[in-house]
């Protein structure tokens, strides 16, 4: 981090996708994407996608006249975690289908349970059917 009395005006962040772990290779396929005008020493990069293999990042400080050298590149991986939701055990207000999940504020499953309780076919007092399960 710069000292308090430096004349740094802003930072420039560059990043790109890569198929390699570690520092950038001499022959990279992807161009550097540029984010200019970053005023602080923290920045959140949005729009990244999971499971993109690896990404290289580098940053440099600039004042009003000149830009400094780039930092040593850092390589990160955006790993994906695959999972499935089970329609029979999910929250009662979730509607789970093959490739989609929707929130049903009316509580679709709650309505079904209440209807069964009126018919005498609802939940019993057994621990297996308790709401905490």
Automatic annotation (TrEMBL):
Highest taxon in the source lineage: Eukaryota
Gene Ontology terms: cellular component: microtubule
Domain Fibronectin type-III: 1-81
Segments of skewed composition (Basic and acidic residues): 111-122
Region named Disordered: 110-133
InterPro entries: E3_ligase_FN3/SPRY, FN3_dom, FN3_sf, Ig-like_fold
GO biological process: regulation of cell division; regulation of mitotic spindle organization
Molecular function GO labels: microtubule binding
Protein name: FSD1 protein
Species of the source: Nyctibius grandis (Great potoo)
Lineage: Eukaryota, Metazoa, Chordata, Craniata, Vertebrata
Gene encoding the protein: Fsd1
């Amino acid at each position: 981090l710069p000292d308090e009395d430096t004349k740094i005006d802003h930072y420039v962040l560059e990043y790109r996708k890569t198929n390699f772990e570690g520092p950038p290779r001499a022959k990279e396929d992807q161009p550097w994407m540029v984010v200019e005008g970053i005023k602080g020493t923290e920045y959140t990069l949005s729009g990244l996608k999971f499971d993109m293999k690896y990404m290289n990042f580098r940053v440099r400080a600039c004042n009003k006249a000149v830009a400094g050298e780039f930092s040593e590149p850092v390589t990160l991986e955006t790993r994906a975690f695959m999972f499935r939701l089970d329609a029979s055990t999910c929250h009662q207000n979730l509607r789970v289908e093959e490739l989609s999940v929707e929130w049903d504020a009316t509580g679709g499953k709650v309505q079904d349970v209440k209807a069964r309780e009126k018919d005498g076919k609802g939940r019993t007092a057994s621990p297996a059917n308790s709401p905490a399960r």
